[in-house]
Amino acid sequence: MTATTDFTIYQGEANGVKDARGFSFQTLRAALILTEATVDDGDTVALARTDINLTTPGGQVGYTHSTADSIVITEAPTTSDDGTTKTLTVGGATDDKARAIVLFYV
Question: FRET label pair with 40: which of 12, 46, 62, 89, CA 20 to 30 Å apart?
Fold first, then answer.
């Protein structure tokens, strides 16, 4: 069963950022989404685009604690977007683990 999970968001931004090709972004934003240690593979995090001022999504990377508060490994969350809500689906193959997802956008 897919469940929507509780989460905490931390936000930040950098101005005048250039990518590897030399293209400039006026502002690059990032949101760090932290979940409780009860999240299962396939659970979702639903973000209202207005809550984080999400304009143009860039990408995301996910992490999980393979053992409680210890080793951190990467995993690949998937996303969907209906124009008002950005939904992140937890990737990986483990249940009952804390997750961290970094969402990049401009």
Answer: 12
